[in-house]
Design brief:
7 helices
């Protein structure tokens, strides 16, 4: 009996199939991540110069992509908790120098989340690049807007 094309051949090892659709999704994912990083790199000055319409547009694309990657907010919970804690401190103190060190130390939290969960890698890359552009309170506020926008679009897409 010969193997038909519709029946698996037991003598051949199974390989992961990449469909044109999955390849397209991968390409779009790489494109949006690279597009955001390029935009942040190209900012003249600090993060506050990230135009809000561009920020929201990028978050609108990036949030659903993270959902497709099966990123769950509990996978980056320590990072999100740290952001909210710093936001609260800044609101009380109104002095960016009080949180500047902690803002920079958000990068290792992201790296840790990315090391534990592959789905967090794009978020880590994008937000780490944004953190590099945070030099004052207004930049931190723009960072928070960006993160909150990404999470909002992630959840709107059905992310948990």
């Amino acid at each position: 009996m010969t193997n038909s094309p519709n029946r698996p051949n037991p003598s051949r090892p199974r390989t992961a199939r990449t469909t044109p659709r999955s390849q397209e999704n991968q390409r779009q994912a790489t494109n949006i991540t690279q597009e955001i990083i390029a935009k942040i790199d190209g900012l003249q000055g600090s993060l506050q110069t990230y135009p809000i319409r561009d920020l929201v547009h990028h978050a609108e694309q990036f949030g659903p992509y993270l959902k497709q990657q099966r990123l769950e907010t509990n996978q980056v919970r320590k990072f999100l908790d740290a952001i909210n804690r710093l936001k609260s401190i800044l609101a009380q103190e109104n002095d960016f120098s009080k949180i500047e060190t902690e803002v920079v130390l958000l990068k290792p939290k992201l790296a840790y989340a990315a090391a534990r969960e592959k789905a967090a890698i794009p978020l880590s890359k994008v937000i780490s690049k944004a953190i590099d552009k945070v030099d004052k309170a207004e930049d931190f506020e723009r960072l928070v807007q960006f993160i909150e926008s990404i999470i909002a679009y992630h959840k709107a897409e059905g992310g948990k």
